[in-house]
């Protein structure tokens, strides 16, 4: 299996402070990774490196077989799909859901003068359908609920048929029903052998969809644990990662975690 992402001794230093501290991590083709860690741990910073938008202070990064620094990032970026809050903020609110997804095919956020192919429209509609958004294609992006917006952005991230899909807290802000709906859809995507390699950042083990294979836990920019979910997602590692005693339990193909009561 070839590496989709390879970080070797990567640090990102700002104002003398390491946001990411000597991280080595590799993601092989077909793997689905969850990145877990408390607020400020460096998760988004890692995703920004994986998406080629952030160049590390030290260390080497290979994305989809290309070395960061030696590759034209504008050729690399269409091969990476990204959905998260940062992307949501860039989307024009008055644009329709269909346009929001289709503009990804041209590496743009807003519809301008490009003529869309019929095949682009068909693909955008099929992806929206897969994410449960078929009824919303003509709605303006700005009028969508949080859950609808998140599902639209995942469809958008898949529009270029990326080899790597990066999801930054896709379930943040969703109610219980919205979260469960999204987890089911992500589970279907994670188990699809044709789907891209995936990396999903989250704060909650409840948001890990069945089909996710690996976990990276980080705390204060450093790797606490990395490897298969089955062996690494333990109470010990999670407690270390979040800095308090936690118990993680597996229930079928889902996970829950809770803190121990105060003495
Ligand atoms: N440009 C910057 N300059 C200085 N500090 C920064 C910069 N960008 C991020 N940070 C800090 O780096 C740390 C890691 O940020 P990051 O957004 O990667 O964390 P995170 O794990 O994604 O957090 P959260 O779960 O809260 O989203 C935070 O303490 C943040 O304040």
Automatic annotation (TrEMBL):
ABC transporter domain location: 5-245
Keyword Nucleotide-binding appears in the UniProt entry: yes
SMART domains (UniProt xref): AAA
Pfam family, one: ABC_tran
InterPro entries named in the record: AAA+_ATPase, ABC_transporter-like_ATP-bd, P-loop_NTPase
Annotated keywords: ATP-binding, Nucleotide-binding
Keyword ATP-binding: yes
One MF annotation (Gene Ontology) recorded for this entry: ATP binding
Protein known as: ABC transporter ATP-binding protein
